[in-house]
Amino acid sequence: MSALDSTFSSSRRTSLPATARILFTLLERMDFGALTLTTPDGITRRFGPGGSVGALDGEVDLTLRDWKLCGDVLTGGDVAFAEAFMDDRWETSNLAALLILIALNQRALEVAFYGRWWRQLVFRAKHCYAAICISSRRRKGHTCWRSGVDGVASPNARRDPDTA
Question: Which residues contact 161 (CB under 8 A, 6 or more apart)?
Fold first, then answer.
């Protein structure tokens, strides 16, 4: 029985969301460092062989605030992971160490943090559209017709007559 299996009874493991089980399976493949992950249920799991690797000394902690994050990371990759951090859906005591740990274990985690090719294409298109919108806004001296006050698309935003 591995350390991971000893953390949970079999009935507890089956109650995890499917996306969490997939993400945890990827984390089990880590070759370097150690990650202590706390689930939204308050249960702590440990992944990786441990030990110090280069600039990484000791364990890195990650606390998930909701289970939906697992699915978002599996479909959206590193962009979804970063957006979730900005939305305060996960936390860590040392962000730099967490990013180093992810980089060291890139091969094991690439499906989760780099996403599928079609998802990367969607994120790239969104990024290009946002850049065009911001450029247009600056050039014309007013907000883009698709943006609300905070720069996020709003269904109630007025259409700019110059771009119609």
Answer: none
Q: Read off the pLDDT of residues 30-73 as tens digits, 9 standing for 90 and up.
A: 888 999 999 999 999 999 888 777 777 778 999 999 999 999 98
Nearest to 91 by CA among 118, 61, 68, 67: 61
Amino acid in position 129: Y
Strand partners, 56: 53
Residue 82 pLDDT more than 80? yes
Tokens of 53: 């690797």
> Which option is the CATH number for 3-115: 3.30.1050, 3.30.70, 1.20.950, 3.30.300?
3.30.1050
- Compute, in degrees rounded to 10, the torsion defined by CA atoms 76, 78, 79, 84: 90
Rounded Cα distance, 144 and 103, in Å: 37
* Amino acid at residue number 93: S
